[in-house]
Design a protein that fits this description.
The protein is 38% helix and 15% strand. It is α/β, with parallel strands linked by helices.
């Protein structure tokens, strides 16, 4: 990493958003001074945060109107609750409305999240559903770029949000999967998935294998400069002709070819989802 560069992973959500936007353009919406907190956490003995772990920033990237939505992974594992989810969904919905009014507003999502906040259960799930709908709406007009770098990863319903993005950027340290390692181990047994076997986990859900199997569009080092460069390249591509989430036949045919009599490993996954086979 160049001496004048910094680690993207070590930045908190607010600094990540600020660094990605053009200098001087960062403007936070519903920030901590608004003191909009989850009404449910204190009732369960959990100290809330004034932004509920969700940073919403408006500004520009290369002069183009942009909303950057950054999840703070160190607060409740980046989990999505009623308030944080509503903030994210509303920001995306307003960006889509701007687009319909002729003010194209692109979006960048910084996804460090374990998915739904268990303490808020159905409220969090409903918010994530709203996020999915909002991404699907907005991406028709402008690119929606997802970025996941570490260390929390991107799991649960928010991994579906990542899959709906126009483009997805990861680092080698990132992880992307529908279910987290501990959930898989709990349901399928340690013989199927050992959540303490870190090399195995990263070989299956880490950023590098996700890139090699075509589930993400760019693999970068833990570098603010590289993340920013890849983000701008994705934004410059514009709206994809076909979204990854629309390629049903391609992925269904691949899944039908899985040999369920043996445990899938990283080599067989790479062979099955050979990079370049999708559109």
């Amino acid at each position: 990493m160049p001496n004048n560069d910094v680690s993207f992973i070590e930045l908190n959500a607010r600094k990540r958003a600020s660094h990605l936007l053009d200098a001087g353009s960062f403007r936070e919406l519903l920030g901590p001074f608004e003191k909009i907190t989850s009404p449910w956490l204190e009732k369960q003995g959990i100290v809330p945060e004034f932004d509920d772990g969700m940073v919403i920033a408006k500004g520009t990237i290369d002069g183009k109107p942009t909303v950057v939505i950054a999840i703070e992974g160190i607060f409740q594992g980046g989990s999505m609750g009623e308030v944080s989810g509503a903030k994210m969904a509303a920001a995306l919905e307003l960006a889509a409305e701007d687009c319909r009014q002729g003010k194209l507003t692109q979006a960048v999502l910084l996804l460090e999240t374990g998915g739904v906040r268990l303490q808020e259960a159905n409220l969090g799930l409903a918010a994530i559903a709203d996020i999915h709908a909002a991404i699907s709406d907005l991406r028709r007009y402008v690119p929606v770029v997802g970025i996941s770098t570490g260390t929390v990863g991107c799991f649960g319903g928010m991994s579906i949000a990542a899959g709906l993005c126009s483009y997805l950027i990861v680092t080698r340290e990132a992880r992307l999967g529908l279910n987290g390692p501990q959930v898989i181990e709990q349901e399928a047994g340690i013989e199927e998935y050992n959540s303490r076997n870190r090399p195995f986990i990263w070989s299956m859900t880490g950023g590098e294998v996700r890139y090699e199997t075509g589930f993400v569009d760019a693999l970068v080092k833990d570098s603010l400069a590289q993340v920013k460069q890849a983000m701008k390249q994705c934004l410059d591509k514009g709206v994809p002709a076909v979204f990854r989430s629309q390629q049903h036949d391609y992925y269904l045919n691949k899944l039908m070819a899985v040999d369920t009599t043996t445990q899938v490993d990283s080599d067989s996954a790479k062979q099955l989802f050979a990079k370049g086979g999708h559109q």
